Amino acid sequence: MGDQRRPRPAGSAPTIYDVARESGVAASTVSRAFSRPGRVNSVTAERIRAAADRLGYRTNPMARALPTGRTAMIALVLSDVTNPVYFEIIRGAERAATAAGYTLLLADTQESGRLEREAIERAVPAVEGLVLSSSRMSDSAVRMAAKQRPVVVVNRVFSDVPCVVTDSARGMRRAVEHLGELGHRSITYLAGPEASWADGMRWRSVREAGLELEVRVRRLGPYRPTVGGGLAATTDLLQAPSTAVVAYNDLLAIGLMRGLDRAGVRVPRDVSVVGFDNVFGSDFCTPALTTVAAPLRALGTAAVEQLLAQLRGVPPRTGKPTVLPVRLVVRDSTAPRSRRKTLAWGTGSGAAPGPAGASGTGSEVADRPAPG
Amino acid sequence: MGDQRRPRPAGSAPTIYDVARESGVAASTVSRAFSRPGRVNSVTAERIRAAADRLGYRTNPMARALPTGRTAMIALVLSDVTNPVYFEIIRGAERAATAAGYTLLLADTQESGRLEREAIERAVPAVEGLVLSSSRMSDSAVRMAAKQRPVVVVNRVFSDVPCVVTDSARGMRRAVEHLGELGHRSITYLAGPEASWADGMRWRSVREAGLELEVRVRRLGPYRPTVGGGLAATTDLLQAPSTAVVAYNDLLAIGLMRGLDRAGVRVPRDVSVVGFDNVFGSDFCTPALTTVAAPLRALGTAAVEQLLAQLRGVPPRTGKPTVLPVRLVVRDSTAPRSRRKTLAWGTGSGAAPGPAGASGTGSEVADRPAPG
DNA sequence: GCAGCCGTGGCAATCGGTTGCCATACGTTG
DNA sequence: CAACGTATGGCAACCGATTGCCACGGCTGC
C-alpha cells in the first residue's frame, strides 16, 4: 500500500506502481510476482496478475535493463542487408531470437570495417550479445568486441571466439564429385575475394577433392563475388576454356552464365557451372543453377542459439567451430561433359542478338558483394 | 565534485559519475555538456569531453531512455524479411535511421496479423516510432498502433496516418504504354492477393491506362504473389492466350515466364511479360524482366525520414499520401507483337526436355509471398 | 511457553542519466 | 556603491523496475 506517487498521468503506460495500487500490494511485490514466480503467494500473484491485465501493464524494458543489464536484445551485424546470402541468415536469427523472447537489432555496416566498429560501439550498450556475420573487421577487432559482450561469429573461424560455419569442405567435395560423375576431368575454380576466409576454405576444399577424385583443378581470379564479378570472369574463362566451373558463390556463377550466354557459349551443353550458397534467385536464373546449398537459415539460428546459451551462463563453445552441413542441389546448369572439343568455343561470333528492346544490362544489381 | 559513489568496479562501462570525478565537476554538468551544448561553459565542456574520451565514456541509452523516453530506436515491421521487395526498403530505412543517429529494430511478422500485433506490442515500449511496411493488420489495428507511437505506413493508404506509396498509377500507365508501342492491342493483368491494397491500385491503373490508350485489358487471378503463383497462372493463361501480360509483381512474372518456358511458349517472341517492383533477380532471370521499378529504397528512406520528422515534433503529414515516382526498366521480356496467331500456342507438346540432371524444381523458394 | 524457522510482503537503495530549481559569482548599469 | 541580470554549476528528485535486507505473523519443536 505504501505508494505515495501520484496516479499515472493518463496517456503514459501503466507501471508496477499502478498495478501495486490497483491490487493493494507494494510495487516490489508486483515486480516479484512477474520475475520470480514462487516468491509470492499464489493467490496474491493471481490478484496482481489480474490487476495488471486490467490495466494493460507491460514491463518497461528500459527500466528493467537499467539495474539488471538484461535488455532482451541482441544485435546481428552484417556487411550488407541487401546481399541475398543474408536473407535466410537474418530470418533464422530472427526466429531464434523471437522464440526466446529476444529482439533482434540489425546493423548494416556497408562493407566497411570502420562503420562496423562504429555500429558495434553504438549497439553494445543496448544489447546483451552480438552475432557477427561476415565481419569485415580484423581478428583483433573481433576479439576486442568479444571482450565487451558475448559474441558469436558466422562463417569465419576463431579459436577463442565461438563460431558457426558452413561445411565448405564437404560442399566442394560434393560439387567436384558431381562434376566427376558427369565425366568432367578438369575443373576451374572461380575465386572470390582474396581477403575472404571462406574463399580460402573453398579453394582448398576444391583442390583436395580434385586430388582425391583424380580431377584436375585450377584457379582463376580473384573476382568480386557479384554478378558483375562473374561477368568479368567470363573473359578469362574464354581465353582458357574448361568444361566445368565451380564458382566461389552463386552470384559469381550467375554472372558467369550471363557472360557465357552473351558470348554464345551454352550452359550446360558446353560448360557446366556450379555455384555455392543456393541464394534466392539461383533457382530462377537460366539455366537454374546447380549449387551447393549453404545452411543459411541454420547458420542464423545456430549462431543466435549459441549466443543465448552464453547469455544463460553456459560457457562459450570455443576451440572448434560449429560446422553445419550442406547439400548439393542439382539443377540445370550441369550436364555430362560434351564430346565437342572444348576449344571449339570462343569462336562464336557472339550470342544470337537479344530480342527486342534494350538488352538487360542489369547494372543495378551487378555489384552486391558477398560475405567473405 | 560532490560524488560520494564508490569508483566504478573495473569491468563495467564508465558513467557520467566517473567522468564527473575525472574532470572535477558534478554529474549533472557532464550530462549537460553532452546533451545541451551551450548550457555549459565551453572550456569546462572541453575538459569534460577530454575526460570522457580518456575514459571511453559512452552514454548508456537505457539510462537516458528512462527519464526522457528517447530510445533512439525505431522499428521496421515487415511481413517477411526474406521477401526481396524488402531488401532495398530495409536498406533505405537503415541508412536514413543511422544517418540520424537512430537504430533500426527489425520485426518480421511472418505474414501473420496476430504475430504482427505481438511484435508491435513488444517493440512499442522500446522504440520511439514505427514504420509499418505491408502491414497484414486491419485498418483499425494500424490506427490503434498509431495512437501509441508515431507511425508511418508504407505502400498502403490511410487518411489519418502518414503513408508513403509507390506511384503505381504512373507505373502501370508506363507499362501499358510500352506494350502499346510494341503493337500489343490487348493486355492481360495477372492479379495479386485480393486483400492487397496495392493490387487493387495496380489493376485499376492498368484499366484506366488501357481505356485511355485504347488497349483492351482483362484480369486473371488472383494468384499468390510468388514464383509459385506465376507457375499456377500459366495454366489459366494458356487456356486464354494473350500476347502481353502485366503481372502484379516480379515474382509472379518470373513464375509465369518459367511456366511458359516449360510449356514451350517463348517469351518475348510469343508473349511479352512486364513485372512490377524490379526486385533483386529480375535482371538475371531469363529473359531479363521488363518491369516497373518501384522506388524501393526511397520508400524506406522517406518513411523513416517522415517518422523522424514526427519525432522532432513536426506535425504528421496526413491526408494525402506521399507518392514516390517509378520508372520503367525495359529488358528482354517484351518485344513487338508477333505476327503468329496467338491461338497457335498451347498446342505444343511441352517444353523441350531440360538438360541433364533433375530439372530444377526450385520449390525451396517458390513460396515467398510479396507484400500486399 | 518460548525460541526459532519459514513464508510472505514491504522498505529503500540502486541502475545511469536528465532536468527544474537554486546558489554563486561575475559583470553591468544607474 | 548598490541593485540587478546573466552565465554557470550543483543539488536532488525523478524515470520504472530490481533486489538485499528486514519485519511480521504463524507454525513447529523441545
Number of strands of chain A: 12
- Side by side, the strands of the main sheet of chain A go 2-1-3-4-5-11
Unreliable segments of 5+ consecutive residues of chain A: 1-5, 341-372
Determine the oligomeric state from the structure: homodimer
Order of helices and strands of chain A: HHHHEHEHEHEEHEHEHEHEEHEE
- Tell me the radius of gyration of chain A: 27 Å
Helix proportion of residues of chain A, in percent? 40-55%
Class from helix and strand fractions of chain A? alpha/beta
Which secondary structure elements does this structure contain, and how are they paired or packed?
The structure is a homodimer of 372-residue chains.
Chain A: H1 16-23, H2 27-35, H3 42-55, H4 61-68, E1 73-78, H5 84-99, E2 103-108, H6 113-123, E3 129-133, H7 139-148, E4 151-154, E5 163-166, H8 168-181, E6 186-190, H9 197-213, E7 216-220, H10 227-239, E8 244-247, H11 250-262, E9 272-277, E10 290-293, H12 296-311, E11 322-324, E12 327-329
Parallel strand pairs in A: 1-2, 1-3, 3-4, 4-5, 5-11, 6-7, 6-8, 8-9, 9-10
Antiparallel strand pairs in A: 10-12
Helix pairs in contact in A: 1-2, 1-3, 5-12, 8-9, 10-11
Chain B binds a DNA duplex (30 and 30 nucleotides) through helix 2 and helix 4.
